Amino acid sequence: MKAALIYGEKDVRIEDVEIAEVTKGKVKVKVAWTGICGSDLHAYHHGLALAYEEHPISKRKVPLVLGHEFAGTVTEVGEDVTTVSVGDHVAIEPMLYCGECESCRKGTYNLCEVANVGFLGLAGDGGFAEYAVADEKYFHKLPENMSLEEGALVEPTAVAFHAVRKSGLKVGESAAIYGAGPIGLLTLLCAQAAGASETFVIDISEERLQKAKELGATYVINPLNEDAVEKINAVTGNGVDVAFEAAGAQPTFSSAFSCVKRSGTLLVIAGFGSEVSLDPNAGLFKETTIKFSLAYANDFAPVIKAISEGKLDVKQVITKKIKLDNLIEEGLELLTEDKSQAKILVCPN
């Protein structure tokens, strides 16, 4: 089959590889769509840490098939598989976990002590391929009224859904979202679905801010043109209830920390390339709560339900669809240069 394998920094190759065998407890899926994530971009530009040592759960190291946001149709099931059948449309939850450590036993398998934040497509073979084979536990059946394009968006939507749920955002409260990339835009949709009465989206890209307006943001702010905290305070009087940091930089972290009201919450979704600083007294005097949200755990089922019931119109974040052969030029490279792009979906078949 045709697949996109990552070997190292700026080294992704479209090659023919063998399809993995469907053994006991395994499921094979014909991949319909796979989304390109910021993690894929980071892997493409900086390589993966699995160059020398294999992952403790997947037992894989590079080269491996990239791509962790994918959906498709089940074509074969192994012995003892009961939750999905041949012909089912499925979304794949790519979070690797052992199921046995304390975190897994508690249900917080995103904090698995063995996997140490591993995903199919980044620590094991993923979805930029014509077919994928994985353990049954990673597959979620999609309802008939849900498209496979939407299925490929379940994974990034689960990241945003988990963050909004963890933030404690309540109906009628206000929210600021720093960063209008795919996760920021999906956080906007999830905050709206949770009942946010007023939303602010902050980004330095006018193209991304325009997309946020299309998705229903109450206000969009470009910090190159105006002070975000001053604008938020001018509108709200005393700041927002929740600020989401989905950009991962010192300026956005500081601004998000400053724009929450007294007893407000700063929820960090983004990963950071370096340490950031904050004034603890500023948080102390406002009793600011700072929370961190890592991926998702037990969020796929409610996300699938919300999408299928029309409560989350995630198709709005799709800006381009391409073929697997064009993954590098029209996907990984384009996303680096063209900020008008949000979610690019790749069709391997």
CATH architecture of the largest domain: Alpha-Beta Complex
Helix share bin: 25-40%
Q: What characterizes the major β-sheet?
A: 7 strands, mixed
Are there runs of 5+ residues with pLDDT below 50, and where? none
Order of helical and strand elements? EEEHEEEEHEEEHHEHEHEHEHEHEHEHE
| Percent in strands | 25-35%
Q: Under CATH, the topology of the largest domain is which?
A: Quinone Oxidoreductase, Chain A, domain 1
Span between termini: 10 Å
The CATH superfamily of the largest domain turns out to be Medium-chain alcohol dehydrogenases, catalytic domain
What would you call the shape?
Answer: globular
Write down the CATH class of the largest domain.
Alpha Beta
How many structurally independent domains?
2
Mean pLDDT: 97
Backbone CA Rg: 20 Å
Class inferred from helices and paired strands: alpha/beta
What report would you give on this structure?
The chain has 349 residues and is an alpha/beta fold. It folds into 2 domains: 2-152 and 313-347, Alpha-Beta Complex (Quinone Oxidoreductase, Chain A, domain 1), CATH 3.90.180; 157-292, Rossmann fold (3-Layer(aba) Sandwich), CATH 3.40.50.720. It is built from 11 helices and 18 strands. It has helices spanning 38-46, 102-106, 148-152, 154-167, 182-193, 206-214, 228-236, 250-259, 280-284, 300-308, 327-337, and strands at 2-8, 11-16, 26-35, 64-65, 69-77, 89-92, 95-96, 118-119, 131-135, 139-141, 174-178, 198-202, 219-221, 240-245, 260-268, 289-292, 318-323, 343-347.
